[in-house]
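Sample 1 of the test manifest.
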Amino acid sequence: MRMNIHFKNRVACIGAGLTLFRRRLFETPRELAWEAAKQALENAGMELKDIDCVVFGSAPDAFDGIHMQGEYMVDGAGGYKKPFTRVYVGGGTGVFSVIAGWWHVASGLCDKVLVVAEEKMSPALPHPQYVFHHIFDPITDKPLGVNLIWIFALEMHRYMYKYNIKKEDIALVSVKNKRNALDHPAAQLGAKITVEDVLNSEVLVWPVQRLDISPVSDGAGALILTSEEYAKQYTDTPVWIDGVGWNLDTTYWTNRDLAFPKYLYYAGKMAYRMAGIHNPRKEIDVAEVYDPFDYKELHHMEGLQLARKGEAPILTREGVTERDGDLPINPSGGLLGVGNPIAAAGIMKVAEIFWQLRKEAGKRQVAKDPTTGLAQAWGDLMQIGTVVIMRV
Amino acid sequence: MGRDVAIIGIGSTNYTPMTTEYSYKELMFEAALKAYEDAGINPRKELDALVTAAEDFWEGVSIFDEYIPDQMGAVLKPALTVSGDGLWGIIHGYMLVKTGYFDIVAVEAHSKASDIDNIMDVWRIALDPHYHRPIVDNVHMFAGLEMMRFMEEYNVSREALSMIVVKNRYNALYNPMAPYGTKTDIETVSNSEVVSYPLRKMDISEYSDGATVVVLASREVAEKYDKEPIWIEGVGWISDSPNIEEWDLACPSHVVLAASMAYSQANIDNPFKEIDLAEVDDRYSYREFQSLVALDLTNGYMMDELVFEGVISPSGELPVNPSGGYLGMGYPLEAGGLVKLYNAVVQLRGEAGPMQVGDVEKAVVMTRREFPSPSSAVVVLGR
Amino acid sequence: MDKNVKLPGTPYSSDDFKKGKIPYVEDVPKARYTWSAGIAMSRFLEELKNGRIVARKCHECGRVYVPPRMFCSYCFRPTDEWVYVKDTGRVNTAVVSYIGADRGKLGEPLVVAVIELDGASEGMGILHKLGNVDPEDVKNRKVFNMRVRAVWKKPEEREGAITDILYFEPIE
């Protein structure tokens, strides 16, 4: 792979839109996608007819219960009679759909791309979690009655063991993110809670408790990406996508070092090299890292080299990752606070960096003056990292 | 768009109705080994990215992306899944190379249709849950509607449709990859069982299993390559409304628009004259004609003339589906477009043996995704 | 985007749904599969019936893969040899589950673990249950590195499935 810092076609983000994130929304998947897309278009000062290509992101088809879900979504996502694709990397899809939007423009093939992600988990009965049963290997894992939370708990526990991390320190992430989410207009679970609340919440799979986990959500998000030429036509304040990275580890998750997300280390490295970043800890001003579980925020900070191995809990305890800290992490409130409509949550993270860099985050605006931000998601069998680096 | 991206390697398993002995991972591994060997690359060192085209409900696994890297040599590499046919995989691989950051990208698609016990029920899950699902039992019904409208507007005879089946299944006899080669006749096809009138059983491609891998490279890498590279000269992909009722059923606009997108990139003004070979969608007999119409490849011939006067036979003015198409190779779900592309590359390289249709300079590959999908992709290849 | 922006979306509660205020269409997707286990996993399952765990070895890098596969994930070449690994091993990580696959509460908590089998390459574990392990020993982290062995079903009850091993239990 060539890693010269040479932008043949620089890609800008010029608009973002979100719906509410809620446990149940009345709108159909198509309607949700449309609402988010419409907002992003208005935000960018565009109409649908101005768009060349559409990229759609959504996680398992099984939530909506619709096979080939991308095809069903075409018109809702604004893809009618346009080049339209759905990309899919499990939980990493939201940020990944932005990466796909990036290559549409960076390749020179398209100038104005609408990226839409939508997730409606509520239609799955009896509980959306059962859908996740079907992500596992039908021969080695499924017969054991595996629940999605098992594998995250196994990873979390290994991480805690290896670096001797206390549950109290991990719980601080949940406390911070839910509090941050109080200031987010889409938030499902903004709340003032304490470490004790987390530690006293229902134990699902030790060491994972209810308040360690993000909720089940419905929601959608959208972004507008353009080439440099068009960005300048539409706005004075484009946000540039200067680096993208993604990386997929082996399928056999029981064969991996669970204490360190190597895939994310490589994904981050790819994005940093593309963006010309040598010291991420110093050069990244604000980051939205993927936090479906509180320990994942810490795990991912370390994978992204925003903290040394085992150091993320310490930074969190010292307040470094608060909005007024030196390295604000998840100022939006993250998945733990804003909610987790899987692919849409990834878009929400990129949108937050977009607003933070444009200083449009209102009460959520971080104290420092950010010029470089990072958004990241994670998915599959704890296996893929997707990273976008943005600059003003 | 110029010659920026080349195909430097292809590999495939044979396509067969059943592959009970092998897992999909083992099929993918075989195709990948062959493709990397053909390209002369070591994927662990040289592969920059992997694109897989797959859909969860075909695999019977949610988030199929989880299961792709190991057998493809792509562990700890940028790998991704496109929810679509392999031809969309090619288009995204093409764009990745064109960004300038990726030199070698592999594209994979496969079918394990035989692992699905009740495939017609699985097709039904793709239907809109509020409107179509309660009233449509069988997705071939949509094909029947489309076929009726097409026959009416383009004045196609039943015999001409049957002749497409006869032609493609005969062509397949010369394709070592194809399982459905046979000598049949118009009468047998025309009298096969009615599925959704006017669609008959033999108008419909049977399913097949297999895996195919294609290796793409930047111009810089391709020019160092010891075989003649095959260039991707144009790509187009378009989706129409998911409400089939809104389509032009005689001539689907998603194909027309995708073709014009690909042709304009490839600087093709007169497709029939400039293109030497077409591998087009023939999931259903009528679909081959319909694809040719939408791709502007009929040169004013009537449909009956195209097939009865040999215009689209392997030795004709424009050989269409000399591989046997879906009718002869089987319909391998999301691998469909990639198998067609594989066969076009073999022809462009002049390596098709008894299938070779003569000197091929330019080829067009086109597939639709199947009902209820409103999407098509077109790729123009050149030597 | 500030907190006060009003975003689209119409929330409803599970109560609204139960009371019939939300129109809906119900469907149970029917999709059944018979997955071909393939060469590597078929042999693995057959050997489980014999009370043995079989792996594949790559002669280039020396890795011994469990579960077995016909290709080396890291060298990208066919693996070379069938080898047996022991049914004993070491706990890499373990947790206590209070919920089942459908998120329903389990009557008894269940301990599950990643177990690195003796004879497999370092770090190559498998997922399985632990028996006769006190959940407290998971919580106080005593379980890490614990030596365990497989407890098998009786030979006549085995069916060629991962569940032919009932669970792993501590050796001492």
